[in-house]
Design a protein that fits this description.
This protein is α/β, with parallel strands linked by helices. The chain contains 14 helices and 19 strands. The strands form 5 sheets. Strands 2-1-3-4-5-6 form a 6-stranded parallel beta sheet, sandwiched between helices. The protein has a 5-stranded mixed beta barrel with strand order 15-16-17-19-18. Bound molecules: S-adenosyl-L-homocysteine, iron/sulfur cluster and FE3-S4 cluster.
Length: 442
């Protein structure tokens, strides 16, 4: 029996692709090894979103090279966005790699491995969805659903359009069938995945498939028995329309959380980033959310130190963050990526300026998130238990509908929904106790 090991870098798309790789490998008789040292097939599912992602992977590749020297029969495969961005060059730079493939070729993994000559082969066409493959889910009760692949936006800093190709949506019927199957297997929470989820469906008509848009899809998934929570990531502010915002108020399973990537609070920089919205338009989207779903958690992504970012531009990002009051944010230092437009911009920001701005931004985000989180103290929240708390294993950890991590004392099992009385809140997590009243009354 052959054994595989997969190391995953990057976003939820990659996590999900890895589940599909594992599912496929198991379907052709492979079993998962606990670590790369005991694996016959060492796979990396790579990311290239920032330079740090590349360097993290390089360190792992160095270890793999040593393993291959010690055990020459080991097969080393590199998939994902980094592989796609360097293509055949991977074999010139790293001759010990046996097979390389992009995100559009995951479905062919079994074929690569069973082909006669497994030496220095690259597969980089954009075709097929991982969504149609078997999967090995990390948790029985949570599932990812890939609703589209690729991205048609042209954000000037971003490598994803070149690593994931043009946007292609999956047919709504197939998605509904997939979620029904997951629900029948015990999944209660689904996360719909795409680079620009609210552009979902625009290409279906052209491909002769029944029309559907993102709001329709949400309603159809909400109607599936057993699905208690629906999340999605990421929407684009340009396409955040009233129908989707209203769906958060109207659909029982759709959670009170919207991740709305900002990138910058300066309209001038948003234009250079090719984000297709202004500061005002973004704030208008936030107002729409607050109007229909007042308690909604809003989180975001922000880039600091984009080429040409002046102190004035940055001050606008800070003031926007203060104004919105985010429940949380992922903050990134701008990283020039190969073959992106922004990497060629002349006015790159100095490293120490980026670092200093990042510190100021993080301070504002954390203060805002801490303040926002206080609204939960004294409330009883519906929590989906994920397992033991990371810091204190005698306590439990779960997530509220607002996507807040909740650490609490209680007796529940992973996968159960419980009511938790929230007693305190920091910028990152809530703390509390399983509600006795709720348990006694069921
Ligand atoms: N499709 C999603 C995000 C994909 S990448 C969206 O548009 O929201 C996740 C985040 O990484 C982006 O939102 C952005 O904030 C960040 N990012 C992307 N490219 C980057 C780069 N070159 N440097 C720094 N951060 C980057
Ligand atoms: Fe990248 Fe922009 Fe597409 Fe997001 S929307 S994946 S940031 S190009
Ligand atoms: Fe995701 Fe990284 Fe690719 S963030 S889309 S795995 S470049």
């Amino acid at each position: 029996m052959k054994r595989y090991h997969v190391t995953t870098f990057g976003c939820q798309m990659n996590e999900h692709d890895s589940e599909r790789m594992k599912g496929m490998l198991e379907s052709i008789g492979y079993r998962e090894a606990p670590d790369p040292d005991s694996a016959d097939l060492i796979l990396f599912n790579t990311c290239s979103i920032r330079e740090a992602a590349d360097s993290r992977f390089m360190a792992h590749l160095g270890h793999a090279k040593r393993r291959k020297r010690e055990r020459p029969g080991v097969v080393i495969g590199v998939g994902g966005c980094w592989a796609q961005s360097v293509k055949e060059e991977v074999f010139r730079r790293f001759p010990f790699v046996d097979v390389a493939f992009g995100p559009g070729q995951v479905h062919k993994l079994a074929e690569f491995l069973t082909s006669d000559s497994l030496t220095a082969q690259g597969y980089f066409e954009f075709e097929g969805f991982t969504g149609e493959l078997p999967q090995k889910r990390a948790r029985d009760f949570q599932g990812w659903v890939q609703i589209s692949v690729g991205c048609n936006m042209v954000c000037s800093y971003c490598i994803v359009p070149s690593t994931r190709g043009r946007e292609v949506s999956r047919a709504a019927e197939d998605l509904v069938a997939e979620v029904e199957r997951m629900a029948s297997e015990g999944v209660t929470e689904v996360t719909l995945l795409g680079q620009n989820v609210n552009a979902y469906g625009r290409d279906l008509g052209k491909r002769g498939l029944p029309a559907a848009n993102f709001a329709d899809l949400l309603a159809r998934v909400d109607a599936i028995d057993g699905i208690e929570r629906i999340r999605y990531t990421s929407p684009h502010p340009q396409d955040m329309k009233e129908d989707v915002v209203r769906a958060h108020a109207e659909l029982g399973a759709l959670c009170e959380h919207i991740h709305l990537p900002l990138q910058s609070g300066s309209s001038r920089l948003l234009k250079a980033m090719r984000r297709t919205y202004t500061r005002e338009r973004y704030l208008d989207r936030v107002a729409l959310i607050r109007e229909h779903v007042p308690d909604c958690a809003i989180t975001t992504d922000i880039i600091v130190g984009f080429p040409g970012e002046t102190e004035e531009d940055f001050a606008q990002t800070l003031s926007l963050a203060e104004e919105v009051g985010y429940d949380g944010a992922f903050t990134f230092v701008y990283s020039p990526r190969r073959e992106t437009e922004a990497a060629t911009f002349p006015d790159q920001v100095a490293h120490d300026v980026k670092v200093e701005r990042m510190e100021r931004l993080v301070e504002v985000i954390q203060r805002g998130a801490r303040q926002r989180a206080q609204r939960f103290v004294g409330r009883t929240l519906d929590v989906l238990v994920e397992g033991p708390s990371r810091k204190d294993p005698t306590r439990l950890r779960g997530r509220s509908r607002h996507n807040k991590v909740v650490n609490f004392t209680g007796l529940a099992q992973a996968g159960e929904f419980v009511q938790v009385d929230v007693t305190s809140a920091t910028s990152q997590t809530l703390a509390g106790e399983e509600s006795l009243v709720a348990r006694a009354t069921g």
